[in-house]
Amino acid sequence: xxxxxxxxxxxxxxxxxxxxxxxxxxxxxxxxxxxxxxxxxxxxxxxxxxxxxxxxxxxxxxxxxxxxxxxxxxxxxxxxxxxxxxxxxxxxxxxxxxxxxxxxxxxxxxxxxxxxxxxxxxxxxxxxxxxxxxxxxxxxxxxxxxxxxxxxxxxxxxxxxxxxxxxxxxxxxxxxxxxxxxxxxxxxxxxxxxxxxxxxxxxxxxxxxxxxxxxxxxxxxxxxxxxxxxxxxxxxxxxxxxxxxxxxxxxxxxxxxxxxxxxxxxxxxxxxxxxxxxxxxxxxxxxxxxxxxxxxxxxxxxxxxxxxxxxxxxxxxxxxxxxxxxxxxxxxxxxxxxxxxxxxxxxxxxxx
Amino acid sequence: xxxxxxxxxxxxxxxxxxxxxxxxxxxxxxxxxxxxxxxxxxxxxxxxxxxxxxxxxxxxxxxxxxxxxxxxxxxxxxxxxxxxxxxxxxxxxxxxxxxxxxxxxxxxxxxxxxxxxxxxxxxxxxxxxxxxxxxxxxxxxxxxxxxxxxxxxxxxxxxxxxxxxxxxxxxxxxxxxxxxxxxxxxxxxxxxxxxxxxxxxxxxxxxxxxxxxxxxxxxxxxxxxxxxxxxxxxxxxxxxxxxxxxxxxxxxxxxxxxxxxxxxxxxxxxxxxxxxxxxxxxxxxxxxxxxxxxxxxxxxxxxxxxxxxxxxxxxxxxxxxxxxxxxxxxxxxxxxxxxxxxxxxxxxxxxx
DNA sequence: CTTCCTTTGTCAACCGGTTGCCAAAAATTG
DNA sequence: CAATTTTTGGCAACCGGTTGACAAAGGAAG
Lengths: 352, 352
Fold this sequence. Notes:
homodimer; Rossmann fold; 6-stranded parallel β-sheet; 13 helices; 45% helix; DNA-binding; DNA-binding (chains A, B); LacI family transcriptional regulator (chains A, B)
């Protein structure tokens, strides 16, 4: 009785006729109660409601729990309470480096506060996204949507069932974390103006991306302020390949500097322009967006406007967790700062 | 009674005094049973045990379920059965592109077979890894460990509780999926030999990585076969930065071609060598490993040995799901093929 | 030493499915 | 048409926690 440890390792297969579970079935609060000589409900309180039981009983129960290597059964807990200590994060594209920081930031925050994070991706499809969200809805306490592609209405539907925080988008009535693009864009445009550029092209992202509109607005405003001409060019898709395809339009536009919706577009664009014999940045300057992993692999390394994605992930998770614990009620819209990361792909325009 | 739909939408908030749940509480099998005029257990059978109830009753129940927009409560199901329809994937580093393919492949497979995937990362720490694994153990049906850093013993402990599949490593008695490096390495070494190289350096990865040893063995064997000299160089860490740091040793080694444990090392190495004024590939050829995202961003683009990581993820998930459904018992060790991806960073050695 | 107020532990119901056992109903067979 | 086998549906116990209501025990105040 006092030393059941080594025996336990061999007994269960013998005395439990149908273990059913993968291995040996784990101890329950009933086992602890028996060992500590108290009622199961007291055990439950000792382990989840701090201060509800006397210090003496508390210790008794904790020791028993430790001895049995007890771990709560999350399902048994979730069933009556609905609490799962799990968060869902849905990103538009797992392979898009933009999201790495978000994933990491959110994961770290969740783990630090004793939550587990479930990750799903929508592969850029609004339908897949909604399906994934619906599927996870039942098993998590809250959801973070990073750059969601679904309609506002759908997001609001989800938000009615469980707390939702969106990143890179703003939806009326839903808490959000969004990079404030203006600072970074302002720095970039001023820099380009100072380097002699007079016309800037902005290569847009997918129309359903909320962020591409914000960035274009930012570019337009900054250009007006600096008395620069600017023009928006559509892209087929926000990838390296999409960047290659838009190169022809960029040249045709007559702009000497390009800002793109994201770094992937910028990298593809640069590859294509260089392949066509153009010098970057001597003939054309390129500025990307996001400062993704790999942005400095290129030659020249990519100048880009960094959005602190890790912070976005951290902030979003914090926001969500605070909401779950009855914190801030005010449907906040957090902003994080962007900044220009000056590398080799932008610079002084040389007369050609 | 026959048209409770529109009423139901407004009633619950009214007649349920304590919704407790985030929104309105969802319908249960009891609601379905009432609506269909059968016993709850019959509903349960109709929805999970195909063929156990008559076609007529089945339809009755399915219609009622559809009408109520019923969705099973995963916790209620998991509690008695232990089944969760959830898989855990633990990777060493979320930001390391090597794992993107694994994540995506595993996620897609899981989703296709109606499982949800939970993702965790260990940040390269054996302890964090074990903690994460233990935490998820209770809530998932099985675990995929991608490039695990923990000891064999620990992996075996986990495997005793729930089915485990490892990627990029082999552990006695645990099913695994591992790229067969020899084909790709053979192609690479033959190509280097044909281009006039006589001495090859291999930049190793972290000592606790099972894979770095396999790759070195492969390089050594292929070099012997092609009568090339080869030497192994340690690195501080398997990142771009680690690659930069090892550049000096590479030059000192006198090798004219370098193969690295992974692409990140190769990219860092190339950056540093180019910064020091060396021509790639004219003076030194560089071959990476994995063909990660961004491997073609560099100038010249990186020659590398591609491991089909997406396949690894797919295979691992398939293996695990088959195990869970009582499939293959034989503790398989799957191999996936590697291949040389010839780009610009390797080529003919020019006399200097 | 009462009386009253806290603190602490127990009882029992409940969360929402699953499943073994049994009996009623239906189908098959003689 | 009765006897037997197979289907099919119902009953009730159970999974492992949580929690409201309540009573016993302990402490403070008078």
